Structure formats: C-alpha cells, structure tokens
From TrEMBL, chains A, B:
Record-annotated Glycosyl-hydrolase 97 C-terminal oligomerisation domain positions: 598-698
Descriptive protein name: Alpha-glucosidase SusB
InterPro entries per the UniProt record, alphabetical: Aldolase_TIM, GH, GH-type_carb-bd, GH97_C, GH97_catalytic, GH97_N, Glycosyl_hydrolase_97
Subunit structure: Monomer.
EC code(s) of this entry: 3.2.1.20
GO molecular function, one term: carbohydrate binding
Leader sequence residues: 1-20
UniProt keyword annotations, A-Z: Calcium, Glycosidase, Hydrolase, Signal
Residue ranges occupied by any Glycosyl-hydrolase 97 catalytic domain in the UniProt entry: 307-503
Top-level taxon: Bacteria
Keyword Oxidoreductase set for record: no
Domain Glycosyl-hydrolase 97 N-terminal: 23-289
Gene3D superfamilies registered for this protein in UniProt: 2.70.98.10, Aldolase class I
Amino acid sequence: MRKIIVLGLAFNMLTLLVQAQVLVSPDKNLSMKFELKEGVPYYQLTYKKKVVLKPGSLGIEVKDAPSFVDGFTLSDTKTATVDTSWNPVWGEQKTIRNHYNELTVTLTQKAQKDRFIRIRFRLFNDGLGFRYEFPMQDNLNYFIIKEEKTQFALSGDNKAFWLPGDYDTQEYSTVTSNLSEVRGKMKAAVTSNASQHTFSPTGVQTPLMMKSKDGLYINIHEAALVDYSSMSLDLDDKNFVLQAHLTPDAIGDKGNMQAPCQSPWRTILVSDRAGDILESKLILNLNEPTKYKDTSWIKPIKYVGVWWEMITGKSQWSYTDLPAVQLGVTDYSKVKPHGKHGANTKHVKEYIDFAALHHLDAVLVEGWNEGWEDWFGKSKDYVFDFVTPYPDFDVKELHRYAASKGIKIIMHHETSGSVRNYERHLDTAYQFMVDNGYNAVKSGYVGNILPRGEYHYGQWMNNHYLYAITKAAEYKIMVNAHEAVRPTGLSRTYPNLLANEAARGTEYESFGGNNADHTTILPFTRLIGGPMDYTPGIFETRVSAYNPTNKSFVHTTLARQLGLYVTMYSPLQMAADLPETYNKFLDAFKFIEDVAVDWDESKALEAEPGDYITIARKAKGTNNWFVGSTCDENGRMSNIDFKFLDKGKKYIATIYADAKDAHYETNPQAYTIRKVEVTSKSKLAQHCAPGGGYAISLIQKK
Amino acid sequence: MRKIIVLGLAFNMLTLLVQAQVLVSPDKNLSMKFELKEGVPYYQLTYKKKVVLKPGSLGIEVKDAPSFVDGFTLSDTKTATVDTSWNPVWGEQKTIRNHYNELTVTLTQKAQKDRFIRIRFRLFNDGLGFRYEFPMQDNLNYFIIKEEKTQFALSGDNKAFWLPGDYDTQEYSTVTSNLSEVRGKMKAAVTSNASQHTFSPTGVQTPLMMKSKDGLYINIHEAALVDYSSMSLDLDDKNFVLQAHLTPDAIGDKGNMQAPCQSPWRTILVSDRAGDILESKLILNLNEPTKYKDTSWIKPIKYVGVWWEMITGKSQWSYTDLPAVQLGVTDYSKVKPHGKHGANTKHVKEYIDFAALHHLDAVLVEGWNEGWEDWFGKSKDYVFDFVTPYPDFDVKELHRYAASKGIKIIMHHETSGSVRNYERHLDTAYQFMVDNGYNAVKSGYVGNILPRGEYHYGQWMNNHYLYAITKAAEYKIMVNAHEAVRPTGLSRTYPNLLANEAARGTEYESFGGNNADHTTILPFTRLIGGPMDYTPGIFETRVSAYNPTNKSFVHTTLARQLGLYVTMYSPLQMAADLPETYNKFLDAFKFIEDVAVDWDESKALEAEPGDYITIARKAKGTNNWFVGSTCDENGRMSNIDFKFLDKGKKYIATIYADAKDAHYETNPQAYTIRKVEVTSKSKLAQHCAPGGGYAISLIQKK
C-alpha cells in the first residue's frame, strides 16, 4: 500500500528575500534552518529544541576553476512531503515507511554567469539527509573536486565512538572518548594494518556515533555513495566542528565530476532514544529503489566455512611452501604440498555434511585456488586467476556432492588489491561460478590497491566495487565484499550486495582479540550503512586450542555468540567455528540452526552504545521471534518485556544464557539452556556475564 | 634452412680471476669489454678500434632493499655463438640472419647471502645488446626498482637527433644538435601536447640517433620491452654520459619485479655506414620468436580513410555540437546533428568505392561511434563503449557494402587514455569487430592516462598495450596502436602488432607543419624499433584548401610523398589524402596503387640522417623492385645504381620525381613521371627538390 502526499509549494519573491528557510520533520521534533549569510550557505539542526548542529557551512571547492563555496544568492526554493512505503528484497523489516519533508534550495552565483547548484534537504522523524546537486546547464560541465566543504558544527564536546580517519582501512578498534580526547588517543588507536593511510591527527571515519552531554544520540554518515569519493571527517577540536574530508586519488584530486551529477546524501541521525538509531531506515530510504527486474535469485544465506581454521593458523590457505609462484608457469603437480592445506576435497565434504545435517545453506571455501603462496604484501599484479583450483580441490566433484546434499559452495575471490587483474578476469570468474553451481561470492581487497596510488575508499575504487556488483547481477550472483568501502545503503538499489566487512570482525579475535564491548558499538557505527559479515558463532574461544602458538582468545562468552545472530543484523550469517567444536555443543548450536536470517519486524528492546544492546526480531513469514543481547566487560542484568508478541498467544521461549559464573576471559563456555512458556505479558530479568549476552527463540504454540 | 653452431665454453677458475672479459663480433669489428672494478660492473665498446662507449657502469637500484650496483664478484662466465636464420610473418626481408657472439656473466653479492644476477651480452656485426637477468633463487624474490643505473658513456660531444625525454609523449619535433647544446635547446623543443611530462633539462628519448666526430653512426634503444618500464636517457652534459632513466608509476616506483625476470635488452647499433643502421635487424633478433600457432590471418594493409578530412578540420569526428554527453543516457536521435560528421554511411561508401577501384585493402573510419562530442581533455572515465555507432553510421550496411567490394573497414578505438574503461569493454569491442567483418583496429591513447597518475610509458601501461595485443590475437585481430609506447621489436613475438605511431606523423603537418627533413630522420630514430603508421600520401599540401581557417601546409613535395612508401617501412600504409584530391592526380596515385607493403629484400642505397635517405625494396614473392628517396630542405642530386636488380634482366622503371622547379613551400605539386628501361648496370642521377624526393617502380620484363 503506497500513500503519497506531495505538496509542491513555490515560494513567492517575498519569501526569497527572507534568506532563511526552515524545515521541520513530520512529527516536528527536528527542525533544520538553512540560511545564506553573505553569500555563504549555512544549515543548523535542533531536536526537541536542543541544539544538534550549530550553523555549519556548505560548499564544494573546485580545482583550477571557481568553487561552489560563496557568492550565492537564493534563486529558488521548493518544498515537498513524501509518505510512502516499500518492501525490501531482504531486511530487518518487511515494509519500510519513507516519510519526510523536503526542502530544495537553488543557489546561483551571479559572478559565474549565473551558474547554479541545488542543495536538497530531507528531514525525517529520526534525522536529516542532504546532498549537493549539479544540474545540467551551459555554465557547468566537467569539474574536479578539490575538497568538499561541508561542516557538521557540533553543539559541544560530544562523547564519541570513533575510528581513526583512513583512506584504506576501517579495521581499527573503536575508541570511546570525548571528542576533545581524540588528538591524544590517536597514536595508540592507529594500530598496524596491511593497507592504511591516515590523514589527520584528528581525523575520524563515518559512521560516527556520538552522545551529546544533553543525552542526544547523534550519528553522522552518508547514503548512496555512487561515483564519488568516500567522506571522512576532520575534527576541529577547538570548536568541535567536523569538516568533510574526501578521499583523494593518486594525484590528489578528490572527485572527477560531469554535470548533471550529485554528491551522496550526508546523513545525521538524531534521537533521545538509542534504539531509534538502531531502528532508523533513513539511509535505506535515501537510496534509489532497485531497477533489477527479477530478484528471485537473491536469498539470505546461513553458512559454515573452511576459514576460521586458517585464520587461527590450524591450517593454511596455501598448498605448498614455495616462496613465490607464477600462475600458469608453476606446475603444482610437481611440487610437494606442505600437507596443511585446508581447502581439500575430503575436508570440504565434511563441512558440506555438517551444513546439510544442520539445515544450513552453504559452505564458504577459502584457499581453493592457485596463488596463495605469495598472495599477500607483494603488490603482485597477476596474483590470482580465480578459476584454477589447487590439485587437491576437485571443483566438479564438490559441486556434485554439494548439490546432492542441497548445499551451495560460496566462492572466494581474494583480489589482493590487484584490481585491474580482477576486472580482467571478472567475466571468466563469474561464468566459472555459474558453470560450477556457485551463486554467491565473498570478495576481498587485502593490501594496497593496484593501480598503485589509489586508495580503497577513493572514487576510482568505489566505481570498481559497484562494477563488480552490477556485473555479478548479470550472472545472478550475490556478493559479500570484504575490505571494500563501508556500505551506505546501496543494497536497496543493488540487493545482490548482501554484506560487507569494512570493520574489525571476528577474525581480529584471532589477531589479538577485540574489546569485550566491540559488539555493543558496531550496530551504532558500522552497521548503520548496511549489513556486516561479522562471522560470529565462535564456541571455542581459546585460539590455542587450534593453534598452540596463537595465544589470542575471543573476548566473548559462548552465549553472547548466539545473541549476535540477532543483534548483528545481516542477511548473510556464518557459523564461523569448526564443526568438530560445534559437535561438542550441539544443544547450543541448535539456536544457530533455528535462528532466521530474514525478518518481518525488528525492535530494539534495550540499547546504550558501548554498554549493551538487546534486539527482538520476527522471522520472515512466521509468527516466531528471536531475541539477542550483548553487553560489555562489566556484565549486567538485562530487563526486557515481550510486548512485541501477539496478544493472547503462547510461545515456547528457549533461552540460551550465560551461567552465573560465566566470564569472557575465565569461563566463557559456561552456559545454560532453559525452556519457558511466555506471552506478551511476560517479563524477563536475565543475567549477562562480563563480555556476555543471551539468545532466545520464541516459537508460537499452535 | 637453419644452421646453428653453438659453442659453449666454460671458463676455468684461472680465467675467473681475470675480471675483464672481452667479447668480439663475428666479423671482429666490434669489441666489448666487460670488467668489474671494485665490485662495480663496467662495459665499454669499440668499433674498428674507435671508441664507441667508454667504460660505463651497470646496475639496478632497488627500493627499500639492497641494490644491484656494487659488491659484486664474477662467479661465472659463459660464452656462445649463434648463427641461425628465421622468416618473419611480414617485414623488410624474407629471411633474417641472427648471428652473434654471446657472453653471460654471473655476478654474485657475497654480502647479500650470495645473491646473484646475470648480464647477458650479445655482440652482432652491427651492434651490441645486453640485458639484466634475475634468476630464481632463495635470496631473490620480489623487488621494486628505484632506478636502473645503466650508463652509456659516450666518446664525446656527439651530434645527436633527439627528442625531449618525456613520460607521456614522443610527438616532439626532432632537434638536431650536438649533445652539448641539448640543455640550451630544451625549452624550445618542449612544445605543448595533450599529455606530456618531461623529467630533466637534459633528458632525451630513445631511439637516440647520433653521429660521432670520427664518423661513427650510433643508435641507442631497447628491445623486447615486456613487463618493464620504458627507458629514457638523462644526459650528463659535462662528461657526455647518458644515464638510463625509467618511467615511474603513480607513486614514483620504477618497476615491480618478481624473479625470475629480466630487463629488456639495451641496444647500441654501430657502423661507419649510415645504411647499416637502417638495415639492422638486431632489435628484431633480440626478440622472442612468435608462439602464435597460426599467423595466416595477419596480412599487411594498404588503406585510405575518413581521417585527414577531420585532422584538417574539413569535417568533424563528432555528430552534434553538444558540449558533453553521457553514453547510454544522451539520446542522439533527439539531437540535431551539426551536419559536418565525416563518418556517415554515404561518405564511407565513397571511400570504399575508391579503395575498390584502386585495389587497396581497407578503409579506416574515425568518428563512427557515440562519444566524440567531449572525448578530449576532460579526463572522462566512461568516454566510449566502442560498439554504439552514431545514427548516421550503419554498421551492418557498411559491412555488407564493403564485403561486396572486397574491402575491409578498419575499426577505430580511441580510448582517450581511459584505459580501465577500454579494458572493461575490450572483449565486447573485439567480438563486435568479428561480428561485423573488421579484422584490424587503430587504437589511440590521446590525453593523460586513467588511472590518474600513471604515464603512457610506465610498466603499468606497457602491460596494458601488450594485453590489448594478445587479446586481439585471440580474435584474429591486427592492431595499429597510436600514442602507445614506441616499439621495441615486439612484432616478432606478436606479429598482429602491425604498427604504432609514437612520433610526429603526418597529422602534425596540419598542426603547424613538420620540418622538411623530418622523414630523413625518422627511419634513424623512431623506426629503429618497429614500423610507424606515418600515413603519407598527401597530394594537396595546403591545408587551407580543405579548411580555409587552417594555414598549415605539409612540408613536402608531392613526389616525396610517393617516395615515403618505400623509405618509411610499414606493413600498414595509408594513402592519407582525400579521394577527391587523388582523382586529380591519378597518374601519380598509380605509384601508391602499385607499391608493395611487404618485402623480400631491402637495401639502403644512400643515407645520411637529417639529409637524405634512398631505399630499394623487392616486393614479396615477385621480381619487382621499388625505390624511394627523401631529402631535406636543401634539395640535392641523388646518385644511385641498380646493382640490386637481377643480372641480365630488363625492368621498366617508372620514375615519379620532382619537377626542376618544384619546392615544398612554393611549388609542391610540380612532378614528372617518366618510364625508362633499366638493367642492373644502369645508374641514375635524379634531381630532388627542397623537401622533395622520388619514387620508382621497377617491373621486370618477361
């Protein structure tokens, strides 16, 4: 059901003389004021009369030509209201309401032969989005962006959950601090990475989550990042103004543009309720509907994989110990394998058997193809061909075996950042997938980008990621892109983009460990733009159990791992541990088997960034619900009700929780499972261990 | 018939203690001495006891790791002699003799765990070639070249024919001067270009042609440029030492290498006879034989084209006057054409008719496809799709029409330097060619390269050019690449690479004019590495005759244009002028109709770089010969004999020559045609006008 009310009002000349324009949200809680002061555009934002953003300037600096920063007059304004709804192909909600008030200002530069741009503002009940538009006109054609001059003038020294601003990686541990402390904490925050490039002692990334001193939850990000450079934020820590900072190309330019064109939407989510931030659909609503005519081939996936055993060091991606190889020259049949190659036919069949037994969908296999001996850190151009398996990985036999069990194998395309090489092989690689029964691929961009000088988050690479996704759609292939740009809601337009990584995931638990509160932050930061392939489900938290030389441990209780399947939304969910471990905890694993990956409804029951999150979701097409909770290193008592259940119905709740004495460090595997009958009137007070949580399946009784 | 004598001699330990190694050419005229002095490798060269190169050092500087420049001991030497012959798929000779003495030195760096490299020297009768080799070994794997440290230590202030060293263009006018004058003449020499990047006030390009004070002709270039950066030369004009200077990538590195690998051959041609330089096959001999199993689809081409009319400005590549377009969005059927689009169906048919009437092979058509409105200077990424014609160019109809007349259309792929875009479309573009009867493509790389920061002659782009050529071979397509790297003999290995531009061609006559002696230099410089698509055959030298606003004129007589078909060797030869002009001079055009494009024998009858060149060639598979001559702005009397003709046979010589009063500036179209019977005993004294020359066809009488 679509209900659209569009009010188009053309302001008369008197109004244009008033250079300030006010836009309010449908519920009137948010108010945005746009203003030209001495030819410079400013905007400001309040929520329930509290200042969210003080006046901040807008504009685009142009290279070798007049900029779009000043000399403006307001030549036109238009307003509209939109109230529609739409159904995503997959998601947290069956139906999403798109309800906003819009203001579009046309700004003309008389001194540039009446060259004009537009800024479009959309004010939702839970936030603001705005973008720059460069319409086709005689006086505007090609231009190069030197820097975007958007300001976010914060009300004060907000508490922030931030990552160091970087052109190449988001794999830093989130720092929780006041903005005034960013400068002092930056050095320690910039831990080493295969590919990284910071740009400022006070630079931070988006999504940026904040909490103001007067209790407002504020999140800054962008939506619909297409044919543009990714935005980071440079903090002026005297005045607490965040300046947009785009990612440069190899020669220092920040965007090659051809009118008509537009910037992505800059988004500011605001609420006095933390759960509103988690539940916001603003970013999806700002993205274009999909043009894919057929989306029936796009389906959420629950999977296991030959992966964690390599991450921990139990086995290897590579087949031999050769120091280097040359594809098409090195004859692997003549080389003695080291015997620790994880992706071999027999072993993959074990995973297929496990997946089939437990009603999962797929098995990811990394390390199946020639080239892993020297894939990393060599800036190697022709590093993989994406079609040639190692001698012990039988493509056709595994396709046959998996298909006979109703299981898919997930393809793996590690590009090593060698992107020209990947594009050269892309059609062949996708066709190979189609020919051999694969319909989903995990791609990776580990290491510095080739062409050298480009960054992971520049316009050049953003163009590539989308190219890989749209080409995949031609082959009806779903994509899970790691080390790619963090998402900005593009899955609405390109629903075969199931997930990204673009943050520290579970793998970092094996590289030294994530903070115990990591998963109480990520949904407020990384997940705001789109799903993350977080790959939870680790039941054996001591990595040394798999690889005695690796002393890392996963900073979690087992019960919290189950909760993550609900709190970390993704249409692509991995049960990341090894089958041999799951077989020791099949009662707990039952939750993973049962939990849905696609939802009709989602609600945040409790939430405080950095402390705890409890989410409830209704499994798509059913009357069943699932609840998950995660907390920080302090542990807590979670108090929830079940008002979201159908009234007058009974449900069997199976509660997977931390034992009384569980602790993520000392006693992670102590969990309890109990079944209780609940109704919409029930309440629950549930103990959560330090670094713990819980999971509940709620199956409606007939 | 192949005759191979290989003598492998292993030197004993006593010899190794003698650190100097001497290599002589088969005829003993050339002598190369290799020596280690304090761990640094040096080489020097003499010809008939005259110094060609004084001792110059060798080595490779490595980034962030120990270099290959010193600390060497000579750990092994090997010598060999090779005397074979081979037949090229097309060329100036039916059979090419490959005869050299070889010395390979193994140099070990004890301080680097006995890491070793090899330098292989091949000494032919007409010059030296050497290259660095990096064999597979435990202590050598991936390395980045910071700079190649090869020196060419000249004997003195040689006269040189030089172009400013540049990472992006060779389209400069050759400067003739002593090396000591390079610095002073550089500024004026660096004329403006769509894409250029000089690197030194005394940097020059290769092929570099020189003449020493003691009368030696010396040429420095490289052979087999594969997976490496192009070499320029930086002149130390105090000591007259040329230092190798490689082309950097976007971040300043000069080569990403993985052992086993090698550098290209550095080549020094030497003779006291200028014609030997022109006749040398050294560079081809240093290239690998072709691996193509079937080469029957590769055939030399004589063609006309819808091209000169656009170069002169008589018509346009574009279809409309739109300031910018978006492929797939701009609807050309709704836009009013400007009416000056050259590549329209009717007009192309006129060229096809002309080609068929005069027994040519093909018609090149530029401007046939959507996108020409804003193709240039915009750094546009998605600039062409290579498959969508303008509304007035009927692909299928023209294919049918051309085929019915036995004519091919030559495809045109202007990339505008947007190379990722070209590679994305390459398979589709080549398949489109196959589907529509095209078997040859002229490609272009006008403007700065995308990915931005890369240069036309860097390793990245050299990789691309070869990728386009080898992929073309999969589709049985021949390639004529303009603005690409200058050739280095790769046509032996990849014989579908018919020609390149990589120098100022005839088009520059319309951009202000070339020097009158330009074509007396190019065969000594540009053509040393491979054929040039020079596109001669201009009969109407006043460009204003086509476009009254363009006052340029072609610095040539008409007769000299005919001579160029012989003096400017290429398997791809254009009759560049307009059919309507040729129709006024059909008697002269007869030479172009008759001249061959493939040869069994070639001889330089007279030659002095910068002054004159006269060449005789025997048409492949016939008993007929063709002679061509070109001279500088002074004019001259050419004196040749016909000893190359079969003894005792008679030939009808048709001599196309300058009239007595012809002059490239004032009276270019004054020519004479006379027929004479000649034998091998005949002689000819032929007047050549300033900027003039002549052409002779010699048809053996039955």
